[in-house]
């Protein structure tokens, strides 16, 4: 029997139940649904709608249901179209007549929004913790890279030498911004819709602020229509996951490249690489490749939810049920990905010699030669032409660039020293640039930022994981 059967003259068609049910995927919200229901019955008692005895009966029934879920002994009925229906049905079976009071002043519209916000809040806290952890690991790798250098690339062509740490930190900063985005999404998800009812609230003296506080939400809704219609928190959560996934895919792509024989910059630990079923010599970077691909999946999840919301009239429409699978999917996948990436990054080793060798070409310092001339008063465009001419000359006539520089009237021996890669790196000492001094400052600053994200998370953990 469905919750709404009394309105209908005929039982629901098999096909209707099969197509409209969400129990198969919202079952995992049982914890949040019970949490919301506990707050709700306490709110009803607080409002004088439930007697002490009724409260106790309902609380006991809810505890019994919780126990059934915790021990995986809960039995669903065929007509349990979603987790909310299933729990209410079971509470009523256990509590008898009093069970019929559970849904007083509540709609599944505010209930499902509450459940999903509780789930999102908890999940975002956990995911952000994982991202912070990954950021901390990359920061450690940067510290351990010391004075190693590598080529920095544009157009995937060697462009300028950079500290390996500077490259690593570039990825870490992206992750640090992701943490900021997660925390930002978390703040807006942290609002209670409970008490909004179907869309307009209730004539009963419910106290939305009281139940919001009881659920550890930052605030109650300020508009009941918005409370049951708003799924921004789902979109924002998946967006933060998508962008994190995109960042990881860029790092992953570089790992794929850098572990090739052609680069030889990085070696993966055997435990974090895979072999080939046919080619005995192969060692493949499958984690990185899947990380590259999963970004597309998160983006698909994001587009799904945005498309569901686009043009959707207020307030609740069954369309909104389609918000859950994309959210769950992105969160589940990203969680596994973050753990796998951390394992892979934490065990891989760098071939600093190969990296230095790749950065060793004198041509990478052509810009330093041009800027040497700029310091002597030459307009940059002219200086650029001189340096470019020398590179072309060197390549065409097979003469080392250093010799041409030494022999050049405007450059000479002093300028020849400029083509040494380690020196070139040291010359870019200003804030944020590609020098070791800059790397040291970044390591400090990144440490502070990640630590402050951790503090905010600890505060949320206190409220979201009770
Ligand atoms: N299973 C539904 C969902 O996930 C719950 C809300 C149903 N509300 C309703 N009025 N039909 O969105």
Describe the protein in words.
The protein is mainly alpha-helical and 466 residues long. It contains 19 helices and 6 strands. The chain has a two-stranded antiparallel ribbon with strand order 1-2. The radius of gyration is 30 Å and the shape is elongated. The protein starts with 13 loop residues before the first helix and ends with a helix. The site of arginine has 10 residues, from α6.
Regions with pLDDT < 50 over 5+ consecutive residues?
Answer: none
Number of separate structural domains: 3
Helicity, as a percent range? 55-70%
User: Rg, please?
Assistant: 30 Å
Residues in β-strands, percent: under 5%
How do the helices and strands line up, and which of them pair or pack?
Layout: H1 14-20, H2 23-26, H3 30-46, H4 52-70, H5 83-95, H6 108-144, E1 149-154, E2 157-163, H7 164-189, E3 191-192, H8 208-214, E4 219-220, H9 224-229, H10 232-258, E5 266-267, H11 286-309, H12 324-347, E6 349-350, H13 352-358, H14 366-375, H15 380-397, H16 401-407, H17 412-416, H18 421-426, H19 436-464
Parallel strand pairs: 3-4
Antiparallel strand pairs: 1-2, 5-6
């Amino acid at each position: 029997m469905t919750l709404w059967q009394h309105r209908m003259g005929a039982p629901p068609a098999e096909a209707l139940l099969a197509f409209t049910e969400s129990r198969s995927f919202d079952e995992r919200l049982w914890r949040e649904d019970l949490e919301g229901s506990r707050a709700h019955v306490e709110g009803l008692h607080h409002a004088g709608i439930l007697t002490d005895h009724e409260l106790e009966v309902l609380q006991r029934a809810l505890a019994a249901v919780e126990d059934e879920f915790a021990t995986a002994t809960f039995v669903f009925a065929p007509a349990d179209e979603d987790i909310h229906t299933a729990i209410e049905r079971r509470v009523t079976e256990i509590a008898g007549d009093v069970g019929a009071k559970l849904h007083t002043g509540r709609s599944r519209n505010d209930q499902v929004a509450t459940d999903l916000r509780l789930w999102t809040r908890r999940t975002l806290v956990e995911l952000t913790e994982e991202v912070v952890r990954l950021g901390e690991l990359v920061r450690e790798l940067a510290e351990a890279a010391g004075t190693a250098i590598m080529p920095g690339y544009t157009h995937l062509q060697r462009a300028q030498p950079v500290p390996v740490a500077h490259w690593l930190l570039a990825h870490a900063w992206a992750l640090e911004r992701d943490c900021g985005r997660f925390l930002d999404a978390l703040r807006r998800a942290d609002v209670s819709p409970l008490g909004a009812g179907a869309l307009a609230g209730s004539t009963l003296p419910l106290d939305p602020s009281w139940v919001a506080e009881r659920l550890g939400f930052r605030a109650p809704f300020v508009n009941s229509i918005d409370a049951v219609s708003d799924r921004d928190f789902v979109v924002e959560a998946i967006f933060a996951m998508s962008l994190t996934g995109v960042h990881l895919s860029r790092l992953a792509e570089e790992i794929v490249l850098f572990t090739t024989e052609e680069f030889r910059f990085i070696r993966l630990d055997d435990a974090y690489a895979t072999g080939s079923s046919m080619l005995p010599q192969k060692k493949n970077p499958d984690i990185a490749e899947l990380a590259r691909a999963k970004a597309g999946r998160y983006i698909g999840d994001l587009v799904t939810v945005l498309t569901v919301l686009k043009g959707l009239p207020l307030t609740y429409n069954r369309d909104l049920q389609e918000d859950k699978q994309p959210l769950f999917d992105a969160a589940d996948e990203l969680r596994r990905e973050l753990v796998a990436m951390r394992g892979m990054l934490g065990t891989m080793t760098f071939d600093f010699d190969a990296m230095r060798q790749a950065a060793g070409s004198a041509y990478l310092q052509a810009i330093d030669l041009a800027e040497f001339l700029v310091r002597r008063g030459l307009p940059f465009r002219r200086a650029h032409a001189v340096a470019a001419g020398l590179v072309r000359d060197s390549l065409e006539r097979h003469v080392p660039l250093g010799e041409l520089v030494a022999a050049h009237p405007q450059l000479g021996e002093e300028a020849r020293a400029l083509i040494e890669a380690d020196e070139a790196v040291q010359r870019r000492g200003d804030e944020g640039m590609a020098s070791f001094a800059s790397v040291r400052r970044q390591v400090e600053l990144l440490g502070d930022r990640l630590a402050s994200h951790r503090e905010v998370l600890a505060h949320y953990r206190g409220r979201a994981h009770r």
